[in-house]
Amino acid sequence: MFTLTDEVIESTIDSVSGYIIAAVSTDTGKSLEEVARLFYASRMYALLSDKKTGYYWDSIPEMINKFRAEI
User: Fold this and answer.
1) 1 in a domain, yes or no?
2) What is the mean pLDDT of the chain?
3) Would you say residue 23 lies in a domain?
4) Do the Cβ atoms of 70 and 40 come closer than 8 Å?
5) Cα 19 versus chain centre, distance
6) Integer Cα distance of 68 and 12 in angstroms
7) Which range marks the domain in which residue 56 is found?
8) Which helix (H) or strand (E) holds 22?
9) Which residues contact 15 (CB under 8 A, 6 or more apart)?
10) What tens digit of pLDDT does each residue of 34-57 get?
11) Cα–Cα dist 17/42, whole Å
12) Is residue 60 predicted with pLDDT exceeding 80?
């Protein structure tokens, strides 16, 4: 049985963050380092990393679009 623990949530947040950073880096031609810096300072990351929002289960393409709109 699947149990939603803090460890699972944190792992999901890390995985989703990495995916978003890689996707935006590829799409924009910006370096991974630059996109990571922008992402970790973004409102999108603040929402994603706040366990209360539940963003870690939302649509990744939607999160990518919201992050792109920020930058």
Assistant:
1) no
2) 95
3) yes
4) no
5) 7
6) 20
7) 6-70
8) helix 6-28
9) none
10) 999 999 999 999 999 999 998 888
11) 11
12) yes
Query: With pLDDT > 70 as the criterion, what percentage of the chain qualifies?
Result: 100
Residue 46 amino acid letter: A
With CA atoms as reference, report the closest residue to 56 among 2, 7, 1. 7
Domain count along the chain:
1
DSSP class of residue 2 equals: -
Please check the confidence at residue 71 and state whether its pLDDT lies above 80.
yes
Furthest CA-CA distance within the chain: 41
How far apart are alpha carbons 44 and 5 in whole angstroms?
22
Q: CA 58, CA 35: separation in Å to the nearest integer? A: 21
Assess contact for 47 and 40: CB atoms under 8 A: no
Per-residue pLDDT at 1: 79
